[in-house]
TrEMBL record:
Alphabetized Pfam families for the sequence: LANC_like
Record carries keyword Metal-binding: yes
Keywords: Metal-binding, Zinc
Record GO terms (molecular function): metal ion binding
Sequence positions that bind Zn(2+): C283, C332, H333
Entry protein name: Lanthionine synthetase C family protein
Record-linked SUPFAM superfamilies: LanC-like
Entry's Gene Ontology BP terms: peptide modification
C-alpha cells in the first residue's frame, strides 16, 4: 500500500471521528439510538478502537457509551444482538477489554440480562425443533438471533455453559428436517429473506448469508473451534454446512460464487435459476462466505478447502464484473467491508495467497475514498446521506473502522468486528 493511500484512508477515518466527536451533535431517530448497526453503540465502537490504538481520547468513547445508556434499554424478547441491552453490552465489553476494571457494575448487569435472554431464546428454539416446525431467520441469524449472541459470548464468556448451549443449538440446526413431505436443511425458513411471508418465495428458502443465513453459523462454529471450544457433533455440523455450500457453488467465469439463497423450486430442480452477477459483500455473497469457508478450513485443518476459499475471495475482489456490482462504500455490503474482509483473510492466508489479498486492498480503499479527495467533504456527504448516515453497518462509523483496520499503519487492537464473525 502506498503512503498516499494510507494517508488518505487515515484522513477520512480521522475526519469521521472528529465529526462524530460529540454525541449531542448527532440527530438519530429514536428507534435507532439503541441499535448497534445504526445508532449510538456502533458509533461508540469507533472511538473505542481509536482510543485503544492511541489515536484518540478515551473520553469520547465514554461519552458515547454514556449517551447510549442514558435512556432505558430494551431487553427481553424485543431486544437482539444488534438492538437494546445486548448491543450496549457488546460495545461496553469492547471498551472493558482495554480498560481493566472499567464498567464492571454495568457489565455484570448486562451479562446477567444477556444470559437470561439467550436461555429464553434457546428454550423457544428447542421447543420449535421438538415440534418439527421450520425456524425463523431471527431465531438463528447473526444480526437478530442466536448466532449473534454466540459471537458476543465467544468473546465475552468463552468458558460459559451458555456459549456451549448456543453451539449445541447450532449443531441441532444443521440436522435435516422433514416438512410437507420434503427433506430440507434444518435452517430452511418458511419466509422470504426479509423474515416476512413473500410471494416471491413460495415454500420459503435456505439463506446462505453471513448476516441472516447459514454462513454466520458456519463462521461461529469455526471460530469456536479455533478457540479450542467444541461440543458434541461440532465438526459434523460444520461438515453438513460445507457440503451444502459445495453443492450449490457455481463457477461464474470470474471465480467461484455462492447464491444468496436457495428457493424451494431450485431445491426441487437441484439447479439454481440464472441470476445476474451479484456483489460479493459481507452480508450476502462470496466475500463473507469465502471468509467463513477459510475459517472453517483452518479449524478443520483442510488445506485444499482453505486454498479454494482464498482463491475464491481473491477472484471476488479482483473480478471487474463483481466489483461493478458493488455500488456503495459501506461495511455491510460495500467496498469498506470488502477491504476489511481482505485484511482479515490475508492475516490467516496461505503464503501463496496472502500477498494477493493484500494487493487487492488499495483498490478497494480507493473506491471508498480516492486519494486527493477532501476527507471533510466525504464525511459530511456520508453522514448526511439517507442511505449511509453515521452508523456502523451502513454508515460513516463502520467505514472509518474498516479503513483503520485494513489501511492503517498500526491496526487497532480491539475485537470490534466480533459481531461480524470475520475474526
Amino acid at each position: 500500500m502506498t503512503a498516499q493511500t494510507a494517508k488518505s484512508t487515515l484522513g477520512l477515518a480521522d475526519a469521521v471521528a472528529e465529526h462524530l466527536a460529540d454525541p449531542g451533535s448527532v440527530s438519530l431517530p429514536t428507534a435507532h439510538r439503541q441499535h448497534l448497526a445504526l445508532g449510538l453503540p456502533g458509533i461508540a465502537l469507533l472511538h473505542i478502537v481509536r482510543a485503544a490504538a492511541g489515536l484518540g481520547p478515551w473520553q469520547r468513547a465514554h461519552d458515547w457509551l454514556a449517551a447510549a445508556s442514558r435512556e432505558p434499554l430494551t431487553s427481553g424478547p424485543d431486544s437482539h444482538p444488534f438492538y437494546g441491552a445486548p448491543a450496549l453490552a457488546y460495545a461496553v465489553a469492547c471498551a472493558a477489554d482495554y480498560l481493566p476494571g472499567a464498567y464492571r457494575r454495568a457489565l455484570a448487569t448486562l451479562d446477567r440480562q444477556t444470559a437470561a435472554d439467550v436461555s429464553c431464546r434457546l428454550d423457544a428454539a428447542h421447543r420449535r425443533i421438538d415440534t418439527g416446525r421450520l425456524p425463523a431467520l431471527a431465531e438463528f441469524d447473526t444480526v437478530r438471533g442466536l448466532t449473534g449472541y454466540g459471537a458476543h459470548l465467544l468473546r465475552r464468556a468463552p468458558d460459559s455453559s451458555v456459549l456451549r448451549d448456543v453451539l449445541d443449538y447450532c449443531v441441532c440446526l444443521t440436522h435435516p428436517i422433514t416438512h410437507d413431505g420434503e427433506t430440507l436443511p434444518g435452517w430452511w425458513t418458511p419466509t422470504g429473506p426479509s423474515g416476512r411471508p413473500d410471494e416471491r418465495f413460495p415454500g420459503g428458502h435456505a439463506n446462505s448469508g453471513m448476516a441472516h443465513g447459514i454462513g454466520g453459523v458456519l463462521a461461529l462454529l469455526a471460530l469456536a473451534a479455533r478457540h479450542g471450544i467444541f461440543v458434541a457433533g461440532h465438526e459434523e455440523a460444520a461438515g453438513r454446512i460445507l457440503a451444502w455450500l459445495d453443492h450449490w457453488q457455481e463457477d461464474t467465469g470470474g471465480g467461484p460464487a455462492w447464491p444468496y439463497w436457495v428457493t424451494r423450486s431450485e431445491l426441487r430442480a437441484d439447479r439454481l435459476a440464472p441470476f445476474a452477477r451479484r456483489r460479493p459483500s459481507w452480508c450476502y455473497g462470496t466475500a463473507g462466505l469465502a471468509r467463513a469457508l477459510q475459517l472453517a478450513s483452518l479449524a478443520l485443518g483442510d488445506t485444499r478447502r482453505r486454498l479454494h476459499a482464498e482463491n475464491a475471495l481473491v477472484a471476488a475482489l479482483t473480478d471487474p464484473a463483481q466489483l461493478n456490482a458493488t455500488t456503495d462504500k459501506a461495511l455491510c455490503h460495500g467496498f469498506a467491508g470488502l477491504a476489511h474482509i481482505a485484511a482479515c483473510a490475508a492475516d490467516d492466508a496461505h503464503p501463496s495467497n496472502a500477498g494477493r489479498l493484500r494487493a487487492a486492498i488499495p483498490t478497494l480503499l480507493a473506491a471508498v475514498h480516492p486519494p486527493g479527495t477532501d476527507p471533510a467533504h466525504t464525511t459530511t456527504a456520508l453522514i448526511q446521506h439517507e442511505a449511509y448516515g453515521p452508523g456502523l453497518l451502513d454508515g460513516a462509523a463502520g467505514i472509518a473502522l474498516a479503513l483503520l483496520s485494513s489501511g492503517a499503519a498500526v491496526p487497532p487492537r480491539t475485537a470490534w468486528d466480533a459481531c461480524l464473525l470475520v475474526a
